[in-house]
Write a structure and sequence with these properties.
The chain is α/β, with parallel strands linked by helices. The chain is built from seven helices and twelve strands. The relative contact order is 0.17.
């Protein structure tokens, strides 16, 4: 079995994030990391490998589209236990929206691993920067594959996949047959932390770098100029204001606190 896990390199939420002059997110001049929600997809892929009758026959590939620094996201996946990495890097990709990103990912998936198609394509439920949750479905459509999305639990048996999806009013159990696309939520299980052994082993794992031409993708089909969405205006986050202190000097603190909460429509 061959599993591709789509991972994304995103700006660190604890860092100073900002936009470029063209109002695209700066992904080069800021610290970045593997999207936390994609770590759950990596974890589930690794669990499928570990639970297989012959784990050595299951290959997990971390696939990423992004700038040169995005290789750090792939390295994190390799340190967690993925077997190999594929990095699609091309200046023309900058500014691509979800539609163009899904195109590049689909072409990379179609290329396969050493000429062999993937049996399973796994994704996180969303990215921590865009939070659109649409790429897995777009990817399935482009690949003409069935999709099982928003899985809180994933099980495989042979070529069968069964997931549990927890909604607001019901829990669904849905199944399908590989090849297919599966996306997982942050309820699917805590992602493992890379061990020292895993970090050292990752340095020797294969990591392939591809360009758009390697995938047969026209540069005119990706990038900011053909994006279906556009950021027209950005505003810097306002500085935090000093909080209001409620003192209970004469026994009226509870009343004052209740009035404050009511005025802010918190209660």
């Amino acid at each position: 079995m061959k599993i591709a896990v789509c991972v994304k390199y995103v700006p660190d939420a604890t860092g100073d994030r900002h936009f470029e002059d063209d109002k695209t997110v700066d992904r080069v001049g800021v610290d970045g990391l593997l999207s936390e929600l994609d770590e759950y997809a990596v974890e589930q892929a690794l669990q499928i490998k570990e639970k297989a009758e012959s784990p050595d026959d299951v290959e997990v590939t971390a696939l990423c589209v992004g700038p040169e620094k995005a290789v750090d996201a792939i390295r994190k996946a390799l340190q967690m236990g993925a077997d190999k990495g594929v990095h699609v890097v091309d200046d023309a990709v900058a500014g691509s929206d979800a539609i163009a990103t899904s195109l590049v990912l689909a072409k990379a998936v179609e290329k396969g691993s050493d000429g062999t198609p993937y049996d399973l394509v796994m994704c996180g439920m969303a990215s921590t920067d865009g939070s659109m949750s649409v790429v897995p479905a777009m990817l399935a459509e482009r690949l003409s594959l069935p999709q099982l999305t928003l899985a809180s639990k994933v099980e495989t048996q042979g070529d069968q996949v069964r997931i549990q999806r927890d909604g607001d009013v019901a829990t669904e159990v849905i199944g399908g047959r590989m090849p297919m696309v599966v996306s997982v939520t942050d309820q699917s299980g805590e992602a493992r932390y890379p061990s020292f052994k895993g970090i050292m082993a990752a340095k020797k794992k294969p990591l392939e770098t591809l360009s758009l031409s390697d995938l047969g993708v026209d540069a005119g089909d990706v990038g900011l100029s053909v994006a279906w969405t556009e950021v027209t205006q950005t505003t810097a986050r306002p500085p935090r204001e000093a909080g209001e202190i409620v003192k209970d000097e004469d026994g009226s603190g509870a009343t004052a606190l209740a009035e404050f909460l009511a005025a802010k429509k918190f209660v």
